[in-house]
Amino acid sequence: MRVESLKLGLQQVLNHQGIRRYGANTLWLFAEQVLRMVAGFLVGVWVARYLGPERFGLLSYALAFVSIFQGIAKLGLDGIVVRDLVQEPEKRDVYLGTSFWLKFIGGVITFFIIAIILFIQSIPTSNLFTETNIYILIIAFGIISQSFEVIDFYYQATVQAKYISIRRIIQLILSSIIKIFLVLTGADLIWFVLVSLFDIISLSIMGWLIYRSQGLPNFVRYFDIEIGKKLLKDSWPLLLSSIATSIYMRIDQVMIKNMLGDREVGLYSAAMRLVEVWYFIPMIITQSVFPAIVSRYNDKQEFYRRLIILSAVMGYLGLFLSIILSLSSYFLIKILYGEKFLDAASILSIMSFIIFIFFWMSGISRRQAIDMQKFALFATILSAISNIILNLIFIPLLGVEGAAIVSVLNQLIAGPFLAFFHPKVRENFYIALKGLLIPFKGFKL
């Protein structure tokens, strides 16, 4: 009788329209992310191998330089607009139109900021249109078209992620085919730069076509100054966080280029790709088991026990992968990238331990703590600042390997270090540490 009631209850849950809708939405997003990770890695490695360290480094530098400024163009509106669309769906067109024009203006301003910075940098040589600057300006032009991202906001708010994922998958396939064609035909670097611009613009065009094909109104005609002020007022903390995140994630490549050269950027970027490819694993595990953890929130002892176990699993899995990747760095670089990239092996052997820290702290990162958003902003800004300062110290001393060491140190700063010293999230640090200490019997924290 009890078994039958459980089956009936499970069937009712699975047939629940809301659960099925959100489940399908999550599956679309998950499938797209995994496909992007796999295809992006395989094609990216092939492109890097074809271009060689110096040309690949120049491409990586141009992309990283533009990425630093993308946070400005986004204006921190992403989550804010989705929230407001959910709360006031009747104002859909006004919110979409207003946010579109705000992001468009932000994109134009960002493009000119990049152009001005390049102009100032070129004053000593009196040559603005160097090869590097041209590549940066081509990629930066695509920032303006990112204003069409507001279409994603609508589909996120209405739980229709399949429309976001479908067009991203189509764009990924087209981009991958073009890159493979360019490699096979021996194309010059400029064509790979143009593909980067194509990726951004094609996403915008496909998003607009899908949106309009559903008979939805042309939101471009709408703009409300009061709503615009409200959006900007609400979004400034996210804007700061987005800018800090961009700096934290990409400033190392920019600094390596300016202090060491294109080849070193290429080596560093190649190693980083082999580290980042593993980042999807914590996402899968935490999303899978976290509902089971949250379900025992009222039973504090069991709740914390499950968090500690999750942290242990993530920590030791990350440590295992880090050691394997570090020990096999020479072999992996030689097989995947070829002889020209062998100097990246020492970089990878160091950077591989980012995986351990990332996995370990991700085991408890989904637990919502008091004032977590403010802590996240503080942590991101501090990490960005420390990244710049440490790279200024370590790169002149140790070269590109110094930048790899800084990457590991910054992961420590952004994760366990700040978690320990910030009183409102210190408990997260203790949970993660207890997870690592599970094998050592008799230790009590």
Summarize the structure.
The chain has about 450 residues and is mainly α.
How would you classify the helix and strand content by structural class? mainly alpha
Stretches where pLDDT is under 50 for at least 5 consecutive residues are 1-19, 366-371
Mean pLDDT: 78
**How many strand units?**
0
| Helix/strand order, N-terminal first | HHHHHHHHHHHHHHHHHH
Range of helix content: over 70%
Explain this structure to me?
This protein is an all-alpha fold and 445 residues long. It has 2 domains: 10-254, no CATH class; 278-436, no CATH class. The chain contains 18 helices and no strands. The protein is globular and about 65 Å long. The model is unreliable at 1-19 and 366-371 (pLDDT under 50).
Ordered list of secondary-structure elements with their pairings:
Blueprint: H1 2-15, H2 17-74, H3 78-87, H4 92-122, H5 131-145, H6 150-157, H7 161-184, H8 189-213, H9 225-259, H10 262-276, H11 280-294, H12 300-327, H13 329-336, H14 344-351, H15 353-365, H16 372-398, H17 400-421, H18 426-436
Helix pairs in contact: 2-4, 2-5, 2-7, 2-8, 2-9, 2-10, 3-6, 4-5, 4-6, 4-9, 5-8, 7-8, 9-10, 9-16, 10-14, 10-17, 11-12, 11-15, 12-14, 12-15, 12-18, 13-14, 14-17, 15-17, 15-18, 16-17, 17-18
